[in-house]
Design goal:
With 287 residues, the protein is mainly alpha-helical. It has helices spanning 3-18, 20-30, 48-66, 76-83, 90-95, 121-131, 136-143, 149-161, 163-168, 178-193, 197-207, 209-222, 249-252, 257-267, 270-277, 280-286; strands at residues 225-230, 239-244. β1 and β2 form a beta hairpin.
Length: 287
């Protein structure tokens, strides 16, 4: 993602912060099937009338913020410009948001046994998040629309389907302190996603979320194991044991804690805890 693409992402965040109407438009755009790359579609809103209306609202919002008051609702004239005549309809505005590029073709992140087909702008954005190791401006953007019900549900589904890839980021090499920044951003996102018991339980039932998280944690810890020889007193029945290497970066830098935190958050919901205790195979894998 180049400088121009980053500016587009920040523009979308500013639109989300303007109010319910613009946030809803951007969220709908995120759920549309991706058609164009950023280089093919540089214009977010078509039509001078609609652009002027959004700009006017932005100015009014900044003025109201300085007075410590609530920003006014989008003027009726602005809504008319966007939905009728002078500007494109709301659906066209949403469609024009399909502008974020996909991850580079030479991205070396493994899919850990499956390949995810890109379908929407949101899914493309999540793949970018993974490739770029969760930059703060993109994390803020995707979380800013969680108030939209349809967006949150599809975001959770896309997040769960990519959880193995996300957890795999914790095994990469990092500059000093960068791994802790990544951990903080992962937890910041997942805490908001897994706070709703009913929606999270739905992910457990339909997307095997508990199994995915337990497997991700098992994979992380297995990377820290080292083989040691254990000799019995008679040196006849010597055995090879595997123990955790506490000097491994995953352990010493506490990189495992985002996955452990997610596991604890899931089990804090009574429905999910009951479901977990009824899965003998899952308990054995966890232990």
């Amino acid at each position: 993602m180049d400088r121009g693409d980053e500016e587009v992402a920040k523009l979308l965040l500013q639109l989300c912060e303007m109010g319910d109407i613009t946030r809803n438009v951007v969220a709908k755009g995120m759920l549309q099937v991706r058609k164009n790359s950023l280089s093919e579609s540089k214009v977010l809103f078509k039509g001078e009338a609609s652009k002027q209306s959004i700009h006017k609202y932005s100015v009014i919002r900044r003025q109201s913020s300085t007075e410590n008051s609530q920003p006014p609702s989008l003027p009726d004239s602005a809504i008319q410009n966007i939905s009728d005549g002078e500007g494109p309809p709301l659906q066209s505005v949403a469609d024009s948001i399909l502008s974020l590029p996909g991850p580079s073709k030479d991205c070396d992140l493994p899919y850990l046994g499956y390949e995810e087909e890109q379908k929407t702008v949101l899914e493309t954005l999540l793949d970018l998040l993974i490739e770029l190791k969760f930059p703060q401006y993109l994390v803020t953007l995707v979380l800013s629309m969680l108030q939209e019900t349809d967006y949150k549900q599809q975001f959770m589904e896309a997040f769960c389907s990519r959880y193995a890839k996300i957890a795999n980021l914790l095994t990469h090499r990092f500059e000093p302190d960068e791994d802790q920044k990544l951990c903080n951003r992962l937890v910041h996102a997942s805490v908001q996603l897994f706070s709703n018991e009913n929606l999270t339980f739905k992910m457990v039932q339909n997307n095997n979320l508990l199994s995915i998280i337990v497997s991700a944690l098992s994979d992380l810890i297995s990377r820290t194991l080292i083989k040691v020889d254990h000799d019995t007193e008679d040196n006849v029945n010597s055995k090879s044991l595997f123990v955790v290497n506490c000097n491994h970066d995953i352990i010493s830098h506490h990189r495992y804690w985002p996955v452990v935190s997610d596991f604890h958050n899931l089990l804090s919901h009574s429905k999910i805890a009951t479901h977990f205790l009824g899965e003998a195979a899952l308990i054995r894998r966890w232990m």
